[in-house]
């Protein structure tokens, strides 16, 4: 007889089942990646300035920037694909 399994959520980032019902992600790494991606998405949509309140570039943006070329356009940061990568 098959015992009914507790339904587990799928990791928001990679889609694997999470280890616990209350978890949204299968691992810390996935949580960090997901938060990073959602921040960048909001940034591209103009919902985030890409800057922290004291005028520093957000850590999420910094990470993203390693893959891209950034231009400062007035008060906002804009991105161009890095053709060297
Ligand atoms: Zn995952």
What does this structure look like?
This protein is an alpha+beta fold and 85 residues long. Helices cover 28% and strands 14% of the residues. The protein is built from two helices and two strands. It has a two-stranded antiparallel sheet. A hairpin with a 2-residue loop joins strand 1 and strand 2. Helix 1 packs across helix 2. It is elongated, with a radius of gyration of 18 Å. It starts with 27 loop residues before the first helix and ends with a strand. 9% of the residues are buried. Bound molecules: zinc ion. Residues 11, 13-14, 16, 25-27, 30 line the site of zinc ion.
In angstroms, what is the radius of gyration? 18 Å
Largest sheet composition: 2 strands, antiparallel
The total count of helices amounts to 2
Distance between the termini: 54 Å
Tally the beta strands.
2
Comma- or semicolon-separated keywords:
two-stranded antiparallel ribbon, binds zinc ion, single chain, 85 residues, alpha+beta
Give a quick precis of the structure.
This protein is an alpha+beta fold. 28% of the residues lie in helices and 14% in strands.
């Amino acid at each position: 007889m098959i015992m009914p399994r507790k339904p587990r959520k799928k990791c928001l980032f990679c889609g694997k089942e999470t280890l616990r019902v209350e978890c949204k992600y299968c691992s810390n790494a996935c949580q960090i990646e997901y938060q990073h991606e959602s921040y960048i998405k909001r940034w591209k949509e103009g919902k985030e300035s890409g800057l922290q309140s004291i005028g520093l570039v957000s850590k999420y943006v910094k990470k993203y920037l390693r893959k891209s070329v950034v231009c400062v356009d007035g008060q906002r940061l804009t991105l161009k694909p890095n053709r060297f990568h």
